[in-house]
Amino acid sequence: MRSPKSPVLSINGLIKDVGPLSSLDGKMLRVVSGVSLIAERGEVTALLGANGAGKTTTLECAQGLQKRNGGSISLLGEDPAEAGAGLRARVGVMLQDGGLPPSARPLPLLRHIAGLYANPWPLEDLVGRLGIDTFSRTSVRRLSGGQKQRLALAAALIGRPEVLFLDEPSAGLDPQSRQLVFDLITELRDSGMGIILTTHLMDDAQRLADYVYIIDAGRNVAEGTVQELLQHRPVEDQDAEHVRTLVFEAPAGLDVAAVLPAGVEVSEARAGSYTVTGALTPHHLAALAQWWEAKGIMPASMSLQARSLEDVFLDISGKDIR
Amino acid sequence: MSAAALKEQQQPATLLRRVLLQGKYEALTMLRNGEQLILAVVLPLLALVGLTVTPFLDGMGSSRVNVAVPGILALCAMSTAFTGQGIATGFDRRYGVLRFLSTTPLGRGGLIAGKVLSVLAVLCLQVVVVGTVALALGWQPTAAGWLPGLGLLALGAAAFTSLGLLVAGTVRPEATLAITNLLWILLGAMGGIVIPAERLPAAAQAVIHFLPSGALGESMRAAFLGGAVNGGAALILLLWTVIAGAAAIRWFKWN
Question: Would the CB atoms of A116 and B254 count as touching at under 8 Å?
Fold first, then answer.
């Protein structure tokens, strides 16, 4: 684990059991078995993992919503399991399911929550920033997924927290809302807030996170900055640094491999959709292009990708569906 | 980023302010809900008028309305504290509202204190509305009955709030809805709350004395009809409050 600078949250060897479960003959199920992490002030720390990996449970133990069975947690220097109103005033939480009453209207609800703090974020400013003013009188149950998400974010921010927990913040957001929310998160980070978010979307982590913990089956499996993680590669594939993937669509049944120098993999996943993977060079691309020119083939689509966080994630946590 | 950045550490509002705010918010939510209003005000008023124009309660006291009103006030407490509050809490639990609010400075303790406060606030309004209509119908309460009567009503509300929280915190909200509504009808009709146990089947009477509905109905009538404190019934209410409260603390699931 990295060494702490000015951490807002540090978790050490967290253990959480749930149950007893009838599906396990009345035994307990260990959903978190030894997660450790550090989240710094002024950084976005992402917990990345598949559904059921233990991300939300880890967060809920840190928020004091669930009692842990082992390990230690320090949130702004206090144990969240014994937190009082003083600590809760400094921490903002956006839950995965929102946690907003369906019959409530956004503005009165936010005004109510603001009243629980001594120095809340000025309501009009926050409401304007998140575009809530356009639906401030519509009941929560009639809001779209993205509107609900923005309202839940406002509810988490109204107390001007030092630490912000976001559980799957981009769920249900349309591209515009997503941009709005991501810009705000980045701005809050730059102003010194410590932000901890969970996501199963690589793109979120890649765009937002300063530091990423990959969680799988209740454990840490990898961590680092996005750049560090992108350099991760399996031992058997040490020159993966230059690996690119080219995907193109063309008439079915072409013998693409015959045109390319050895050392790359070619597959035709479905008729007419070709994937070329390997240490591609301009030479490969030129060979392909000349061949297409000679045969009069114009690909219907074509894309070239470097290694993504998703590839890293799949390498590390396995490709099995859980 | 001027708005978010705070020079000093954020502080919670005072405990009193947090609880008062939550109480006000929940009371207004309850009063804005049409179904809750029917349960809290309309049905008790219909029962009051019904018992005043029919001979059910004849011979039990100085007038029909005098016998009916204490039981109707008890029914109001059951409506608001048990059924109304139970259903609201059950759905708040489903939608994660309880979990979210317990991460704010309000916390779990403040949340429950706010609920109790909102029940008491709505109950006060019910007493005013029912009392006004009852006075118009010729109600003549014993002056000495007000103090013990309102005290017992608050104790009854505490017992029913504990029971409502116990149900809401342990079963699905749909089940809470069904259980609390069904019990409201059963206890309202046959639990000794508006119709005194003496007018119900002999076999049921022994049980009714030990029900929170029976104990509250009987002690309210003793207070407002004769200015008396029914110590036994008050003790039963207290026991229900303590036992249901302890059970709710033990088994209430926040998520």
Answer: no
Q: Are residues A249 and A148 in the same domain?
A: no
Residue A6 backbone dihedrals phi, psi, to 5 degrees? -135, 70
- Parallel, antiparallel, or unpaired: how do β-strands A273-278 and A244-249 relate? antiparallel
Residue-averaged pLDDT of chain A: 89
* Structure ipTM: 0.89
pLDDT tens for each residue of A149-172: 999 999 999 999 999 999 999 888
Nearest-by-CA chain B residue for A113? B104
Reference A189, options A167, A207, A203, A170; nearest CA is: A207
> Token pair for residue A97?
């399911």
Within a 10 A sphere around the Cβ of A34, how many other Cβ atoms? 15
- How many angstroms separate the CA atoms of A47 and A49, rounded? 7
Q: Are residues A120 and A255 in the same domain?
A: no
Residue A321 domain flag: no
Chain A residue numbers with beta carbons less than 8 Å from the beta carbon of B12 are 85-86, 88-89, 116-118
Q: Check if the beta carbon of residue B149 is closer than 8 Å to that of residue B70.
A: yes
Q: Which helix (H) or strand (E) holds A210?
A: none
Cα–Cα distance for residue pair A275/A249, rounded to 1 Å: 9
The H-assigned helical ranges of A36-174 are 55-62, 85-88, 106-114, 123-129, 145-157
Give chain B's radius of gyration (CA, Å): 19
Task: From A230, A256, A281, give the residue that closes a domain.
Answer: A230
Q: Is the peptide bond before A20 cis (omega within 30 degrees of 0)?
A: yes
pTM confidence score: 0.85
Structural domain total, chain A: 2
Q: Distance from B95 to chain A by nearest Cα, in Å?
A: 6
pLDDT bin (cut points 50, 70, 90) of residue A120 is very high
Smallest Cα distance from B91 to chain A, Å: 8
Q: Which of A198, A230, A262 is the last residue of a domain?
A: A230
Check whether residue A120 and residue A160 sit in a common domain: yes
> Is residue A210 located within the same domain as residue A107?
yes
CATH number of the domain encompassing residue A186: 3.40.50.300
DSSP designation for A78: B
A44 and A85 housed in the same domain: yes
Residue-wise pLDDT for B34-51, tens only, equals 999 999 999 999 999 999
By residue range, what is the domain housing residue A80? 7-230
Amino acid at A31: V
Q: Hey, are the CB atoms on B29 and A102 less than 8 Å from each other?
A: no
| CA distances in angstroms from A72 to A44, A165, A166, B118, listed in the order given | 21, 18, 21, 38
**How distant, in Å, are the alpha carbons of A143, A221, B147, B224 from that of B231?**
52, 65, 14, 15
SS3 content of chain B, % helix, strand, coil (to 5): 75, 0, 25
**A68 and A216: one domain?**
yes
